[in-house]
UniProtKB/TrEMBL annotation:
<dbReference type="GO" id="GO:0071555">
    <property type="term" value="P:cell wall organization"/>
</dbReference>
<feature type="compositionally biased region" description="Low complexity">
    <location>
        <begin position="1"/>
        <end position="24"/>
    </location>
</feature>
<dbReference type="GO" id="GO:0008360">
    <property type="term" value="P:regulation of cell shape"/>
</dbReference>
<feature type="binding site">
    <location>
        <position position="289"/>
    </location>
    <ligand>
        <name>Zn(2+)</name>
    </ligand>
</feature>
<feature type="domain" description="Lipid II isoglutaminyl synthase (glutamine-hydrolyzing) subunit MurT C-terminal">
    <location>
        <begin position="385"/>
        <end position="476"/>
    </location>
</feature>
<keyword id="KW-0961">Cell wall biogenesis/degradation</keyword>
<comment type="similarity">
    <text>Belongs to the MurCDEF family. MurT subfamily.</text>
</comment>
<dbReference type="InterPro" id="IPR013221">
    <property type="entry name" value="Mur_ligase_cen"/>
</dbReference>
<feature type="binding site">
    <location>
        <position position="267"/>
    </location>
    <ligand>
        <name>Zn(2+)</name>
    </ligand>
</feature>
<keyword id="KW-0133">Cell shape</keyword>
<dbReference type="GO" id="GO:0140282">
    <property type="term" value="F:carbon-nitrogen ligase activity on lipid II"/>
</dbReference>
<keyword id="KW-0547">Nucleotide-binding</keyword>
<comment type="subunit">
    <text>Forms a heterodimer with GatD.</text>
</comment>
<keyword id="KW-0067">ATP-binding</keyword>
<feature type="binding site">
    <location>
        <position position="292"/>
    </location>
    <ligand>
        <name>Zn(2+)</name>
    </ligand>
</feature>
<comment type="pathway">
    <text>Cell wall biogenesis; peptidoglycan biosynthesis.</text>
</comment>
<protein>
    <recommendedName>
        <fullName>Lipid II isoglutaminyl synthase (glutamine-hydrolyzing) subunit MurT</fullName>
        <ecNumber>6.3.5.13</ecNumber>
    </recommendedName>
</protein>
Length: 554
């Protein structure tokens, strides 16, 4: 592999005090005694880092012991409390630097593709898949791989791939100067947390302004909100995009575009509306501003032909520097073609040859909730996360592309991590599902809202099983016996002294959906983010799949 960046050694702190001047007057008696005391030396960075590592990993172990989760994110949170600079301290020891992946959709799958390619090229790869993609999760990914002496294990002979939340990017790049940053796409998502897409662009521009010119930007040329990020960057930029004319849906007509969500319409230079010569979905395509002439950048890496063999086998022609290779993407949907294309572009930015790129993509497995396949009681479950209108639209388009009716379980939650404003479901093209459902179960904390939206889409409510998930908290104002009777009435008996919030109904919804799915067939589960966590937790408890945090570095 080429372009490797050696790690930079840590500089020891200079703890020596300046010599006192002989011309200074003698201190008064009270101060003389104080002056004879030796100053307390500062703790060396490695010692502080070691304490932070021990504290963080201990907190994680206690969390797992008490069954409070995977004990992963808390590792970084506690370590940062002990030593706020723990991220910077450990990141400098990574021999091959860090790759950061951010964007609205596709971060996890793109990171997985990149990891598979780099491993096939012979590198040791570390990822933050154990924790979150916020700052605490990034810290966890390093602390988990550190030793009590405050240094990374195996002298940091690895490259890290960090999936980074859109809003957290400025803070993360301030702590870790990345070798490559890839931006996948930008869509409206969790308005109560992120605001409109312009707010996210502003944060990303702040992050890019902090980057050294040695960093490489990898940008999606087909997304005008992403492509504009390269306008003021002085370093190297690689663009990627799709150029297969058969994917153009510009001629499909207004009826099929009634729920097409266009989140970026205006030119970033002059504010005029973009015109499209090719349109793939949402605002993704080939665009140009007729007023000022700003247009889609020419991709350095591009897909020229796409052929779908089966639901999760897509054959693409990948071109770079006029060299063309066929690659099989083992995941469904146009969005996963973009994810594979982004991963290939990152790899080429690092100077990796074609062979690891092809083998890494083709041998990749679906990651947590992104097309993941789980066997349950003689049936196959496919988990397809959908957390915003564009993502849900593309999942529906993928599900019904071949015209086969599907067994479906939709889970809509409105927890903090999902976004509490669920009005976006009215921008989803649920009309696609009309006449395409063999069985349909609707659950989640906002199941009734989703059922109403499906009814307006034309789906008969008698053809849905609606099983809401109800939040239930222990109430200190009623007796333990009353709490127990209430919990039993709502479908599941728990211990009388249980005081944490629990969610009821999802277990019954999963049972119902599996019972309605014949043996040997597939149940497609389409949840929002916390719905995915709840479904996965239930499947873990039934022994159908391991805990999602139990993956290890290869």
């Amino acid at each position: 592999m080429r372009n490797e960046q050696p790690s930079q050694p840590l500089s020891p702190e200079n703890n020596q005090s300046p010599p006192e001047s002989s011309l200074e007057p003698a201190p008064p008696p009270a101060a003389e005694e104080e002056a004879t005391k030796k100053p307390r030396p500062k703790q060396p960075p490695a010692m502080r880092a070691g304490l932070a590592v021990v504290a963080g990993r201990t907190a994680g172990a206690i969390s797992r012991r008490l069954h409070l989760g995977g004990g992963t994110s808390i590792v970084g949170v506690v370590a940062q409390r002990v030593y706020p600079d723990i991220i910077e301290h450990l990141a400098t020891e990574l021999e091959h630097g860090s790759i950061m992946v951010t964007g609205t959709n596709g971060k996890t799958t793109t990171s997985s593709f990149i990891a598979a390619i780099l491993r096939d090229d012979g590198l040791r790869v570390w990822r933050n898949r154990e924790g979150s993609n916020l700052v605490g999760g990034v810290a966890s990914s390093l602390v988990i791989r550190a030793q009590p002496n405050g240094h990374l294990r195996r002298a940091g002979q690895a490259i890290s791939i960090l999936e980074v939340d859109e809003a957290a990017l400025p803070q993360v790049v301030h702590s870790i100067p990345p070798r490559v940053v890839v931006f996948t796409n930008l869509f409206r998502d969790q308005l109560d947390r992120y605001g409109e897409v312009d707010s996210v662009v502003t944060k990303w521009k702040e992050a890019i302004a902090q980057l050294p010119d040695t960093t490489i930007l990898v940008l999606n040329a087909d997304d005008p909100a992403i492509a504009q990020l390269g306008d003021s960057f002085a370093g190297r930029i690689l663009y990627y995009g799709i150029e297969d004319l058969s994917l153009n849906d510009e001629t499909t007509g207004p009826e099929t575009e009634r729920h097409q969500v266009i989140d970026t319409r205006a030119c970033s230079n002059c504010g005029s509306e973009y015109e499209y010569t090719m349109h793939f979905y949402s605002h993704m395509g080939h665009y140009r501003c007729a007023n000022c002439g700003k247009q889609r950048p020419t991709p350095d890496v591009r897909v020229t032909h796409v052929q779908t063999d089966t639901f999760d086998r897509i054959r693409i022609q990948l071109v770079s520097d006029e060299e063309q290779r066929e690659v099989i993407v083992p995941l469904p949907g146009l969005y996963n073609i973009y994810n594979a294309l982004a991963a290939a572009t990152v790899s080429m930015a690092l100077g990796i040859d074609w062979e690891p790129i092809i083998s890494g993509i083709e041998q990749s497995k679906p990651v947590f909730g992104r097309g993941e396949r789980i066997q349950a009681d003689g049936k196959t479950m496919r988990l397809l996360l959908a957390k915003n209108p564009t993502g849900f639209n593309e999942v529906l388009r993928t599900l019904f592309a071949d015209g086969l009716p599907r067994h479906l379980l939709f889970v809509l939650n409105d927890n903090i991590a999902d976004g509490q404003d669920i009005s976006w479901i009215w921008d989803v093209d649920f009309e696609r599902a009309l006449g395409q459902t063999e069985t349909l179960v609707v659950s989640g904390t906002r199941a009734l809202d989703l059922a109403l939206r499906l009814k307006y889409a034309g789906i008969d409510e008698n053809n849905m099983s609606i099983i809401p998930a109800v939040r239930l908290r222990a109430d200190k104002n009623i007796s333990t016996a009353q709490q127990k009777r209430l919990k039993k009435k709502r479908g599941r008996e728990v211990q009388p002294d249980e005081s944490t919030e629990r969610v009821y109904g999802l277990k019954n919804a999963l049972d119902s959906a599996l019972q309605q799915t014949p043996a040997g067939e597939t149940l497609f589960v389409v949840p929002t983010y916390t719905g995915l966590l709840e479904v996965h937790r239930e499947l873990e408890q039934r022994g159908f799949t391991p805990h999602y945090w139990e993956g290890r570095d290869a």
